[in-house]
Amino acid sequence: MDQKPFSQGLLSSEADSQRTLYPYVTGTSVVALKYKDGILMAADMGGSYGSTLRYKSVERMKSIGKHSLLGASGELSDFQEILRYLDELILYDNMWDDGNSLGPKEVHSYLTRVMYNRRNKFNPLWSSLVLGGVKNGEKYLGMVSMIGVHFEDNHVATGFGNHLARPILREEWHENLSFEDGVKLLEKCMRVLLYRDRSAVNKLQIAKITEEGVTVSQPYSLKTFWGFSAFSNPTVGAEGSW
Amino acid sequence: MDLNLNDEHSMGTTIIGVTYDGGVVLGADSRTSTGMYVANRASDKITQLTDNVYVCRSGSAADSQIVSDYVRYFLHQHTIQLGQPATVKVAANLVRLMAYNNKNMLQTGLIVGGWDKYEGGKIYGIPLGGTIVEQPFAIGGSGSSYLYGFFDQAWKEGMTKDEAEQLVVKAVSLAIARDGASGGVVRTVIVNADGVTRNFHPGDSLQLWHEELEPQNSLLDILNTASPEPMNF
Question: What are the positions of the active site (chain B) (predicted)?
């Protein structure tokens, strides 16, 4: 249990008790890439509470409107709040009933504004967001961090994925990946994250968004490989080492 | 050794909520501590929000009480306006709203459980920060650390009411055995279509765990029975 910050120190006054100081329940990496027909996104279903893997069935990717898919890592309560903001945004958009609908670019822009303005008030939404979508044939994939840094790219990752998945994606991603190759590439990234990220959980979902719409896969687990001869007897020749 | 007698009242706690086929069973220990001192050894941490929805409270006693008071107040008005009992989901979301919007000031983890005619028995966990997670079972409080492995092994789908209650009582009892911040009696509340049942399981009715001994009235009783005469069956 964390200590409550009774004395907040020099950086704040008594008046601003409204600032998120640290996350409690967090999701780990989200990885996404553009492929032939749209966007593929992967995230595991873990909600960590510090070092405890507390929740193992959390959906961290949700569809937004008709054209977008949002994945989030970081504080889960902030992700749930962002989903509520987006619900309202989409509702108001639908109420215009004018044949137009918000596309991924617009949703990404909205999220960027929300995250950046919260950051300016020293009360960030402690999340890293991945926003992907397809509208009128145009594929879009972007990211927003908790301080409002935002950009688009052909492949993105949050958290540990930045360090472990992006190098793989840089080497192996290419234009017009098939669905199968895209899924295999994402699974390669997710498997590495499973080996090397302490907060990873072996239960994941892969979501796909194309012009037709969003599909989020059922939860499933990846096989892992431990059959290296070096693994079975690593300290032979150097007893006591690891 | 500083007893920290002026620390805020904290319910170290073990709280549990379990769904079964037809309703939910909520369980909790009964210890409230102020630093190292046990301020209340028979607290009731399972608090009513409506006729059909209850909440298990953990963390700061004050924070959890005020949150449940506000939610009870809002739910009362909501029920009048709606004209029928509130659903568990609505109650849980009201708790979430309070927990999320005051996340900087509150230090309380809650488990909302109840029964309504639309969804049957439901359990919602609302940890620090105000995340809401619907689960078939939920554990919380400092004592819950000792129960993750236990539930991974012992929980199964489709339990009966009695199996669920026995599981809850066993679990709280195991947590009390190892968590200094949990203790006292095990209270359970069962909510289903037929209504609400409150049960009270005093410490001496629970089974003994590792390194625990059968409680005696006095050493003298032991000495008297350990006499040279052989035991007669």
Answer: 13 (nucleophile)
pLDDT beyond 50 at A3 = no
User: Running DSSP on this structure, what letter comes out for residue A237?
Assistant: T
**DSSP for B89-152?**
HHHHHHHHHHHHHTTTT--EEEEEEEEETTTEEEEEEE-TT---EEESEEEESGGGGGTHHHHH
Q: CB neighbours of A232 closer than 8 A, spacing ≥ 6?
A: none
CA neighbours closer than 13 Å in the CB half-sphere of residue A129: 37
The answer on pLDDT for A187 being more than 70 is yes
CATH of domain B10-224: 3.60.20.10
Q: What is the pLDDT of residue B77?
A: 98
* B102-117: average pLDDT: 96
**CA B70 to each of CA B2, B74, B225: distance values in angstroms, whole numbers, following the listed order:** 35, 6, 57
Instruction: Give chain B's length.
Output: 233
Torsion of CA B69, B75, B81, B83, to 10 degrees: -130
Q: Cα–chain-centroid distance for residue B155? A: 17
- Is a pLDDT exceeding 90 seen at residue A5? no
With CB atoms and an 8 Å threshold, state whether B105 touches A19.
Answer: no
| Tokens representing residue A121 in the block | 């008030």
Q: Which of residues 118-157 of B touch A (CB under 8 A)?
A: 125, 127-133, 135, 142, 145, 148
Q: CA torsion A50→A51→A52→A58, rounded to 10°?
A: 60
**Is-catalytic flag, B87?**
no
Residue A8: band (very low, low, confident or very high) from pLDDT cuts 50, 70, 90: very low
Query: Beta strand pairing status for A155-157 and B9-11?
Result: unpaired
Indicate the range of A131-135, A173-177, B31-35, B190-194 predicted with least confidence. B31-35
Q: What is the mean pLDDT of residues A116-139?
A: 96
Q: What are phi and psi of B27, to 5 degrees?
A: -140, 155
pLDDT in tens, B160-212: 999 999 999 999 999 999 998 999 999 999 999 999 999 999 888 888 999 88
Quick check: B86 and B53 in contact, CB under 8 A? yes
Task: Please identify which residue in the block is written with the tokens 């409680």.
Answer: B215
CA distance B86 to B116: 8
Residues of A whose CB is below 8 A from B182: none
SS3 B223: helix
| Chain B contact set for A75 (CB, 8 A) | 129, 131
B35-45 pLDDT, tens digit each = 888 888 899 99
